[in-house]
Structure formats: structure tokens, C-alpha cells
Write a structure and sequence with these properties.
Blueprint: H1 3-15, E1 20-24, E2 29-35, E3 38-44, E4 84-87, E5 92-95, E6 111-112, E7 117-123, E8 126-131, E9 136-141, E10 147-149, E11 154-159
Antiparallel strand pairs: 1-2, 2-3, 4-11, 5-7, 5-10, 6-9, 7-8, 9-11
């Protein structure tokens, strides 16, 4: 099971009425539980345990659909439609620096290119470098350092021009 499979499992649990999912293999066991609407991770490593098939119960009702409505902007807010949003590819904790004693990856006004590392997101004790998929100038950082982020949450606004 790779990180993408784990992320998909986490998304499933967070968007459904399932309270807990446990997945076991010969190498590891991962339990994902919901607690007041948020997902709690409980990875554990157990060697020499028999493999048991895991059945994931389907939600009693389908997850509610999220409607994509344009954001209502106040007159004081600027037009962000010309900017590209860099979004979080996973659930975790957002960090602007690779470590506490290092400089931040990017600041407002920095010019980045495709593949530039813009932040790290820690998920289940793994620090994942998040690379930009667009070239341009950082115009806004939308998340505070060391804050929890959700899958697909906007992190940065980039002016691609």
C-alpha cells in the first residue's frame, strides 16, 4: 500500500458515515477512526500476524455532494480569478520550512517554476515535499505555518503571468 492508497482510504473515511476502518497486511496495520468529524490516524506495525480480510462497510447514505458555487467576494477583496491556486494533495500539517532552523521555501513575491518545492505537509510522521505545478509569482499564502490542512485545501495563490 503506497501513500496514494492511504490517502484514498483517509478520504473515504472522512467523507462517509464509517466510524472506523482497519487495514492489515503482513507488514503493517493501519487504523483510521473519525472523532467529531475529523480523522484520527493510528498506524501500527505488527509482524507475524495472520492476514485477515478487511471488509469496509458502505455508508448508510451516500456522502453529500459538494456544490461548486462561486465565492461571494466583498468589495474590499481583490479579484483572484486570474490567479492559479496550489492546493493540498493530502490531509496533514502544513509547514513553510523544511525544518525549524531553515528558511521558508517561498514568500509572497517570490517567483517559482514548475517543480519548485513550496512547502511540506506532514502526514502520518512522513514529511512530503509539495511541488508547484505552475510557474509564476506567489501573491498570497493562504495557510498559517504548522496548521492542519485538508485534502484539496487551497495553500497558495500564484500569478502565472
Amino acid at each position: 500500500m503506497d501513500i496514494k492508497d492511504i490517502q484514498n482510504l483517509i478520504r473515504f473515511v472522512s467523507k462517509s458515515d464509517v466510524a472506523e476502518v482497519t487495514y492489515k497486511t503482513d507488514e503493517f496495520e493501519i487504523s483510521i477512526k473519525t472523532n467529531n468529524g475529523s480523522v484520527v490516524y493510528a498506524p501500527a506495525v505488527h509482524h507475524h500476524q495472520p492476514v485477515h480480510p478487511v471488509s469496509v462497510p458502505h455508508a448508510a447514505s451516500p456522502a453529500p455532494e459538494v456544490s461548486q458555487q462561486p465565492a461571494v467576494s466583498s468589495p474590499a477583496s481583490e479579484d483572484t480569478s486570474k490567479y492559479v491556486t496550489i492546493k493540498s494533495p493530502m490531509i496533514g500539517t502544513f509547514y513553510r520550512k523544511p525544518s525549524p532552523d531553515k528558511e521558508v521555501f517561498v514568500n509572497v513575491g517570490d517567483v517559482i517554476s514548475t517543480g519548485s518545492v513550496v512547502c511540506v505537509i506532514e502526514a502520518m510522521k512522513l514529511f512530503n515535499e509539495i511541488e508547484s505545478e505552475v510557474s509564476g509569482k506567489i501573491v498570497k499564502i493562504l495557510v498559517d505555518d504548522a496548521s492542519p490542512v485538508e485534502f484539496d485545501q487551497p495553500l497558495f495563490l500564484v500569478d502565472p503571468s
